[in-house]
Amino acid sequence: MLTSIAISNFAIVESLELEFKQGMTVISGETGAGKSIMVDALSLCLGDRTDAGVVRHGEKKADISASFDIQDYPHVYQWLEERDLEQEQNCILRRVISKEGRSKAYINGRPCTLSDLKEVGGQLVDIHGQHEHQSLLKKHAQRQQLDEYGQLTELSKQVQQQYAVWRQLKEELFAKQNQSAEQEAKVQLLSYQAQELEQLDLKEGEIESLEQEQTFLSNIADSQVKAYQASNLLADNEEGSICSLLNQAIHSASQINPPTQELESALEMMNAALIQAQEATDSLRHYQDTLEQDPERLTSVENRLSDIYDTARRHKCLPDTLISLRESVEEELSKLQGGEESLEALKEKEELAYEKLTALATNLTEQRISTKDELAKKVEEQIHGLGMPHARFYIQCQPLNQVTANGFEDIEYMIASNPGQPAQPLRKVASGGELSRISLGIQVVTAHTSTIPTLVFDEVDVGISGGIAEVVGRMLRSVGQRGQVFSVTHLAQVAAQGHQHLQVSKKVINEATSSEVKVLKEQDRTQEIARLLGGLELTEQTLAHAREMLSNVQLQ
């Protein structure tokens, strides 16, 4: 519930801090004093749109904070926890509006989006304005209210979500059933490309291997000549080969006397060089034996490479990307050629989605039908007590030809104000007074089943007076006994029913106007009730009447 509110530089409020209790809190005051300013400020904390005009004249910004105790509302705590915004059992909503019209929103001291502020605010406070009946004239608001009363909001949401799934599948199915000639041409092109790439059957690493083999086969003759020349220089030339010259050098060096360590080292290196030269000669001779020209294989390799390069040019890609191209062409072709199979699969998915949708919508219809009569009966009882004893209230569920996102039926509130008159839609009722009473009756009934901790009624009793006003007050008090209710009112009969009474007044200091809010005690409250009864001039009679009204409330 709402535990406190702090308002700074908002409209004609300079600075205001209030703490609230459970039960029914009444807010009264003279016309123009700013009774609804607190409601307007709270609305901004709940995510309503704003503009620069709300900032107090001469100030840079308006700042509003509302604190809530959520220990008995785990769904709100869970919402905060999912977004890492939890703070023990409290929820503090804050809104700052600059004089330029920019605004910032905070939840538990952390910046947030306006949509988040609105979402969590909708779980904490429900505000019923004096023009609330205008929204109740709309069918979608009536349907939403019926679903909320019957705790069908989640089921209704499931119907909407499933309807969206079904519609998307239906559109996909329609598009696939009307495949264009352009797509058919694409299938033919892809089929030709896939066949060509399949015939080529290029393997991973094949191009590099073929190019290396082509280089080898093309250079065999030249390799044979150079290998012969190298081996001849090493050993095959008896007179001037390296091996012959090394033997002569070793023989000459070995004749030197006396032998020294340096000479021994030189002889070792020359012997090692001779051994390596002989081994190199053997390797070259073995390599020469492997060199054999193969014109047929060379032609085969060159033809294979030519096929690969030509295919790459036709497909306007690099040769080494032909393998990935084949995979992508086959994948795309598989999707298109599998159209008949995909069409059947998609058709089956669409039918299953529709079956699920109709099952959910049928369940929703059944529960709406069982809920509507209960709600209608309770609303009718309320409006009978509001000076419409012969009125009959109905909720019509008109079947539709096909399922919609909102189910199988069209919901509409119906009213017959007088005996013998046929019921007609609520939107066609001409009397504004009747609309106010019916709207108030609906709001009171639905408030009893609301999961929202704080309910605000902003002058919903306009156009009501006398004994009916007392009934309205009792209605609001009974709702407050189950939770927390705020009522902005100008009626003494309603104000007397409050558990807590706040008086709003206006003062002018140094030509600056501001609002003040005072928590009324017994004597002050008696005077305020008397003022509501008889105006500014308080008489002993109005004071006595006020004391009697407050005393009667205590005895209830």
UniProtKB/TrEMBL annotation:
Which Gene Ontology BP terms does the record give?
DNA recombination; DNA repair; SOS response
**Residues covered by the RecF/RecN/SMC N-terminal domain:** 1-506
Q: Which GO terms describe its molecular function?
A: ATP binding
Q: Record's GO cellular component, any one?
A: bacterial nucleoid
Gene3D superfamilies, per the entry: P-loop containing nucleotide triphosphate hydrolases
Question: Cross-referenced Pfam families, in alphabetical order?
Answer: SMC_N
Taking the record's annotation, the residue ranges forming a coiled coil are 180-213, 326-367
The family database entries (InterPro entries) matched by this protein are listed as: DNA_recomb/repair_RecN (IPR004604), P-loop_NTPase (IPR027417), RecF/RecN/SMC_N (IPR003395)
SUPFAM superfamilies according to UniProt: P-loop containing nucleoside triphosphate hydrolases
The family line of this record is: Belongs to the RecN family.
State the function annotated in the UniProt record.
May be involved in recombinational repair of damaged DNA.
Q: What is this protein called?
A: DNA repair protein RecN
Q: What is the lineage of its organism?
A: Bacteria, Pseudomonadati, Pseudomonadota, Gammaproteobacteria, Oceanospirillales
